[in-house]
Amino acid sequence: MNDKTPEFDAIIVGSGPGGATVARELSRRGQQVLLLERGGNQPLKNGVLPIASMMNAVSVGDKLASGRALTTGGTTAVYLGATVRPRVELFQSLGIDISREVEEAEKELPLAPLPDALLRPQSIKLRETATALGYELFTSRMLVDQSKCSVGYTYGARWTARAYVQDAVNSGATLVNQARALRVLVEDGRAVGVEYEQRKGRKAVEIRQARASTVVLAAGGPASPVILRRSGLKNAADSGFYCHPSIAVYGTSPLKGQEGFGGSWGLRLNDEIRIGDANFDRTFYRLIMLGQRQWRRVFSYTKSIGMGVMVKDSVGGELGEDLLYRKPLTEEDRDKLAQGEQVARRVLEHAGAKNLFTSAVSSSHIGGAIKIGRHVDAKLQTQYRNLHVCDGSVLPPEVNTPTLTLICLGKYLANQIAPAV
Ligand SMILES: Cc1cc2nc3c(=O)[nH]c(=O)nc-3n(C[C@H](O)[C@H](O)[C@H](O)COP(=O)(O)OP(=O)(O)OC[C@H]3O[C@@H](n4cnc5c(N)ncnc54)[C@H](O)[C@@H]3O)c2cc1C
Question: Which phi-psi region, left, alpha or beta, contains residue 185 (left: φ > 0; alpha: ψ -120 to 50)?
Fold first, then answer.
């Protein structure tokens, strides 16, 4: 570090829902914020190529991989927009009170259930069939700005964390893209900055440093534990993680349908198995079919019909010394997936679906590698002073629809770092 090393009040690593929220709140309070984002900042465009170019897979071993997006806004750039109410009591039991932040987030975000006009007819048919078969259903509030949907499904209507990044920049934050944090700089047990790799063009990279009195890692469930290890915290992620294994079952429907938002409702089987609507927009459907090498189905969107199954796995596996994640699927995981698949197939068949196929198992998201109470305290602070973590890596396994919870945790962390006056 030399005299030219820039100084900030806070450096936030990663601009997903956790990082974008902390950056927004701190810069609104007059703090000088540097937001380092590994991905680019291209405008979000609908289509297989633009979306695939932002996607990245992190291996969990066992041919299992977890998807994420490397771009401004993080994985919200490609997510579905479904939310569940944050588990206030769960966090209270960990010494964290987010009740005020939940109230605030619910007021300012476009959160509402979707009308049927924004769902595919296949989705409505499955919902009716599941009800008739006696399953208990739930409806999610979706992060969708419905005022942008006057002509029906609209790609750009989903809220993404880019909105909060923009607010942060408007309040004076500096966003640096193509900047991949390598490690946190630590002096006398205190975080003082970040070393990062700045991409310049296709191949060239430059190693840079920036200083700040506070550092927040929000690089996502898989990335932040790796940065902590590289920063000297050898015990980071030493007690397992979860990856919520999932599958989808797709078939051909007697109905033909326009595009719609998927993921807005599901069946409540039990706490361990969730079955939900998988009648997504055309691009997302095509990406799934391409990933599954279902070449003929790629072009049969209008007649497609599907349901997804996600199961809660037990916390386990390891982040090895080579900084790779490994977690074998257990018999219990396979058993839960099979139970979920059976129900999904039952509902699909009763809805008239034919030619059913089940996808390979993938991971919904890697999370929980950083435990509140063990690796971070109730201020989400690590054993290095002023180094905090605020992303999927600190979420307990009970949180399986993380975005809204991360927004609330981001607000909570900003209140710990610089209380609002
Ligand atoms: C297909 C799909 C659909 C989903 N649908 C939903 C849904 O409907 N509802 C829901 O709640 N959740 C959903 N999720 C999950 C949700 O989007 C993520 O769990 C959530 O975005 C995680 O937020 P995060 O801040 O932890 O990480 P991310 O959103 O992944 O953000 C991390 C950011 O950090 C950046 N980064 C990574 N490494 C570095 C580094 N070294 N230096 C600098 N920057 C770095 C990344 O580029 C990224 O921008 C979905 C996920 C997927 C893959």
Answer: beta
Q: Quick one: 409 and 261 in the same domain?
A: no
Taking the C-alpha atoms of residue 127 and residue 135, their distance in angstroms, rounded to an integer, is 10
User: Which runs of consecutive H residues, i.e. helices, occur in 29-83?
Assistant: 48-54
Regarding whether 43 and 165 lie in a shared domain, the answer is yes
Q: What is the CATH number of the domain that holds 192?
A: 3.50.50.60
Q: Which residues fall within 8 angstroms of residue 371, CB to CB, at 6 or more apart?
A: 239, 394
Helix (H, G, I), strand (E, B) or coil at 355: strand
Could you tell me which of 104, 90, 95, 75 has the C-alpha nearest to residue 15? 75
Q: Which domain holds residue 325?
A: 113-154+242-365
**Residue 353 CA to ligand 1 centre (angstroms):** 32
Question: Where is the domain boundary, 365, 388, 403?
Answer: 365
Pocket probe for ligand 1: among 68, 85, 217, the residue whose CB has the most ligand atoms within 8 Å is 68
How close is the Cα of 74 to the center of ligand 1, in Å? 5
Other residues' Cβ atoms within 10 Å of the Cβ of residue 147: 9
Q: Where are the alpha helices (DSSP H) in 208-330?
A: 223-230, 282-291, 295-298
Cα–Cα distance for residue pair 124/82, rounded to 1 Å: 17
For residue 407, the CA-to-ligand 1 centroid distance in Å is 12
The per-residue pLDDT for range 290-340, each reduced to its tens digit, is 999 999 999 999 999 999 999 999 999 999 999 999 999 999 999 999 999
Looking at 137-270, list the stretches that DSSP marks H as alpha helix, in order from N- to C-terminal side.
162-170, 223-230
Residue pLDDT, tens place only, 247-263: 999 999 999 989 999 99
